[in-house]
């Protein structure tokens, strides 16, 4: 269950649980459960750019690969498919409230405020869901939402702003029949009406994950059933009389993963697994980016509708087809597996000491020994680094993407060492001749402890580095911007990230950009 949350806490006694327990769930049986209720009527659409977002609750992406799932696999082959990991507490639990809030709003829980399934602290006024945002900026669009986990409606997470909605109660009635109803009515709307943007949610996958585990045949079966629903929706789109003149984007995403034995809410890698799959105009076929995050769904919807988000929206996401220009991501092909770490599976490739072209790491003052992977600034992925030790807040590195730079004196000190952790990450030199100011932008995640230090230094024309900024308290994965006046006669500048510690915490740097004006 979801770590004490109210959702689906009595499922063992519900009709849904009983139905799952009877054996594999077939698409035919699920379709037979469809109710006869009429589909809601939408206003006539106004856009040739159209988006269908499909939510599959609690679906681990690695289990899609093990299922048949022909429609999801076709979308993957013909679209862009990015996997990533969620946060964990204390930012938020790996449960549905925070997960769907992140998908819908396009911001992380430290902004939208939903930490668990109580929805206490939600801030949808400042960070509305994408349908609510569309109602503000493009009210002429025809929008629809269908859900059978009721809080997504009652809390205003997903359905707010929709012109028409279908809200069913899977917790009370069982998700098998309601998922089938959602599929049938959404298919009808796609065939017989003219919607512009749809959000269609299926909840039974999470029920099976809880009750029978992510390694069960039943879990693969429910993925296949929902894959069948996806196929019906795709077929309905293609059968539209106006399909040839329309530009359709289909996005599929999940809110969290599941433990092998079932359940979520904690910090295990399996609970944190998410994916965003998208196919549509301008979205590359067969792409497997390492820089996609769950917040990217809303930004992708806006992009595909030709809407440029305003800075005041505070989105954390970016469209799935836009790649990061971060120099560290170029290291993906050189990442290797563990050396001294034993909590990381041998097959997980996720770290290197080799700096990107033009960058360097100075370890001349570094102590001896220690854990090899973290001896001086390293370059790592979220999965590799956060596996080193759970529940020390490494899971909160949400605004880093792909490969990032990390100095971790805590993990370095887990193996016998002497001296102090003292390492400097150096950027390439950047031309500033004739410019008045230079700006350093980056994302950082810093945890302060004891006498450790974290300084940023600037070196003008290759001269003696001068400290221009420092950290003395925690900064939990936030964008940073530092503007400096260019001294007279300076033609170049390079920046240094200097970290010292002794079995203290860590410093992460990512997305470094240098510009001048």
From TrEMBL:
Signal peptide coordinates: 1-29
Q: Which UniProt keywords apply?
A: Signal
Q: So which domain of life are we looking at?
A: Bacteria
Which GO molecular function terms does the record list? hydrolase activity
One Pfam family of this protein, by short name? Phosphodiest
Question: Which protein is depicted?
Answer: Nucleotide pyrophosphatase
Query: Which organism does this record belong to?
Result: Streptomyces finlayi
